[in-house]
Design brief:
Chain B: InterPro entries: BPD_transp_1_N, MetI-like, MetI-like_sf. Chain B: One of its GO terms (biological process) is transmembrane transport. The complex is a heterodimer of chains A (about 280) and B (about 325). Chain A has about 280 residues and is an all-alpha fold. Helices cover about 75% and strands about 0% of the residues of chain A. The two termini of chain A are about 30 Å apart. The chains are: A mainly alpha (about 280), B mainly alpha (about 325). Chains A and B meet through helix 1, helix 3, helix 4, helix 7 and helix 9 of A and helix 1, helix 6, helix 7, helix 9 and helix 11 of B.
């Protein structure tokens, strides 16, 4: 009965942290793989190394072969580059623009705030997958276009989150003092507001990264993301989907790679100390 | 209902209408940017420049974009969705049957996922911290963290490859008996139910846990009410608003879900139609499909907001 009132964190505090450490290690591993992929892949991603297609896992071809008999391990390792790289670039642009706009809107107020909020809320009302489908079809699937599309789709969310936090800070006394001192807007958002919201904003950055990885994979899976011969994890699942009836590793491994990355980021954020991930939404 | 709530609801509806206009505008312009000149695509490579110019004129492609947008909007008000470029059929006729298919898929998924998710979410909140709660929580986080196509592939692996209960692909046209029908719908519905329920379970659990930490629930606890009574009589009625809100919000995830599910299972619905239309650059078809999806999505999130307003006792 007392459980209702007690904090679950104090009950399971230790094991939670272990989960967080494991999650952080998985993320670190994928980051290192993304950086050093070209140096560590055993075969070139275009080489056909297996006589059979959808080959099983065995020595030399640790993750089997794909629908053309190419080495799956190399393709998954290189795929990490595209999935992690594109998503990271997109989330950086989305969060930077969203957070700056959100802080400016909160500090300035008035019509700028109203117009921006109304417009970005409307953008938020377009389902992300549909938005991606239409925009990618319009501007193409080159890597810069993909990064920008994904960033634009997630700016409204980052804006909303940062603005809600900044509005609270904006009512504090030190903000009034800074205003009376005659500080510029750039100073207000950079030196007064940002340091006070940076931790929840970073947690939000992680969550948004997961959304972007999922959307990018979804688009690539539909054939509208990265185009051959490049292949991210979503595209790897798509091109090997024919192996599904034989449960080929070629279709399962890229899915597992996506899952390991997104679940790790989610778990890491969930297991950050309360102070850091303090978010109200 | 007092005038305060009525005002808030009206304001929310007005915002929804303005949002819809902005969204329509955005969809129209995004599709106008699709690469390639529609007239020359339609006529093929052998077309003379004169023929292309003539077709552009006939399709009003030379008019300013704003004029074309207004004409399209006016047509929508009359129920005229335009004519498909690809096969010259009215868009309304193309969409009609497929719309029913998608709604069937969404409807069956809703009927299955809502009771399932509410049961799991509420019981998990009641048994908070137990092994059962942790299992439900970890499973729902897992499903939320992976792409929809992975849930679909896992469902195919489990039910079609290992258990061999169901076919991997569905085709509504081949349905003759009830068993056929169940087998066809099973896989898409299972996948969608997983995706939607995971969201709903998390939100329902959070809503009930929040209510359970309020002073009046503690009061009920102190006066000696049983756990069941405490949850069913004291907490649930107050958590109803947030729960219904959670249901409406989760159902809006159906929009993203059907796009993937219809594509992977080759289900003849409106999302599949749209993905194909993007491939053939069929502007009127893309616009209409996108509009239907946005409309459905907007409807659900507006309903969720209005329920949240109405269920706040401080506003009643």
């Amino acid at each position: 009965m007392a459980r209702v009132a007690a904090s679950p964190r104090s009950l399971l505090g230790h094991s939670y942290n272990l989960v967080g450490v494991v999650a952080a290690l998985v993320i670190l591993a994928w980051t290192l793989i993304a950086i050093f992929a070209p140096a560590i892949i055993p075969h070139s991603i275009g080489d056909i190394v297996d006589d059979d297609y959808f080959g099983p896992m065995r020595q030399g071809l640790w993750l089997g072969s794909d629908y053309l008999g190419r080495d799956m391990l190399s393709r998954v390792l290189m795929g990490a580059r595209y999935t992690v790289g594109i998503s990271l670039a997109a989330v950086a642009i989305a969060c930077f623009s969203g957070v700056v706009l959100g802080m400016v809107a909160a500090v300035t107020g008035g019509w700028l705030d109203t117009c921006l909020s109304r417009f970005l809320d409307a953008m938020n009302s377009i389902p992300s997958k549909l938005f991606g489908l239409v925009v990618v079809a319009a501007v193409g699937s080159s890597i810069p276009a993909l990064i920008l599309t994904l960033a634009v789709i997630y700016i409204p969310g980052a804006y909303r989150f940062a603005r809600a936090l900044a509005v609270n800070i904006n009512t504090m006394d030190f903000m009034t003092v800074a205003r009376v001192r005659g500080e510029s807007t750039a100073y207000l958002i950079g030196s007064e507001i940002l340091p006070n919201i940076i931790r929840p904003v970073l947690a939000d950055f992680g969550l948004r990264f997961v959304f972007i990885v999922l959307l990018l994979s979804g688009l690539s899976f539909l054939g509208l993301g990265l185009q051959p011969p490049l292949a991210d994890w979503g595209a790897l699942v798509r091109e090997n989907i024919g192996g599904l009836p034989f449960a080929a590793p070629a279709v399962i491994i890229p899915s597992l790679a996506i899952a390991s990355l997104t679940i790790s980021v989610n778990l890491l954020i969930d297991n950050l100390p309360q102070k850091i991930r303090d978010r109200d939404t | 209902m007092t005038s305060g709530v009525l005002n808030l609801v009206l304001k929310r509806l007005a915002i929804a209408v303005v949002t819809l206009l902005i969204v329509l505008f955005a969809v129209f312009f995004a599709t106008s940017m699709l690469p390639g000149d529609t007239a020359s695509i339609l006529l093929g490579q052998a077309a003379t420049p004169e023929a292309v110019a003539g077709l552009r004129e006939a399709m009003h492609l030379n008019d300013p974009a704003i004029l074309r947008f207004l004409r399209w909007l006016l047509g929508l008000l009359h129920g005229d969705l335009g004519t498909s470029y690809a096969n010259e059929m009215p868009v309304a006729a193309l969409i009609g049957g497929r719309f029913v298919n998608t709604m069937e898929l969404a409807g069956i998924t809703t009927l299955l996922s809502v009771p399932l998710a509410l049961t799991l979410g509420i019981t998990a909140a009641m048994l908070r911290g137990s092994l059962y709660d942790r299992t439900v929580t970890i499973l729902s986080i897992g499903v939320i963290s992976v792409p929809e196509f992975m849930v679909a592939t896992l469902a195919v692996l489990l039910f079609a490859v290992y258990l061999k209960w169901l076919p991997a692909l569905s085709s509504v046209n081949e349905a003759h008996t009830l068993t056929d029908l169940v087998r066809i719908y099973a896989m898409p519905v299972i996948t969608l139910t997983f995706v939607i329920s995971a969201q709903m379970i998390r939100m329902t659990r959070a809503a009930v846990i929040e209510t359970l930490s309020t002073p009046y629930v503690e009061m009920a606890l102190l006066k000696g009410a049983s756990r069941g009574r405490m949850v069913l009589k004291h907490a649930l009625p107050n958590a109803l608003g947030p729960i219904v809100n959670a249901v409406a919000l989760s159902l809006s995830y159906l929009v993203g879900g059907v796009i993937i599910v219809e594509t992977i299972f080759n289900y003849p619905g409106i999302a599949k139609l749209m993905v194909d239309a993007v491939a053939t650059r069929d502007l009127p078809l893309i616009q209409s499909c996108a509009m239907i999806f946005c409309l459905g999505y907007l409807l659900l999130i507006t309903v969720a907001d209005i329920i949240a307003i109405m269920s706040n006792p401080r506003l009643r």
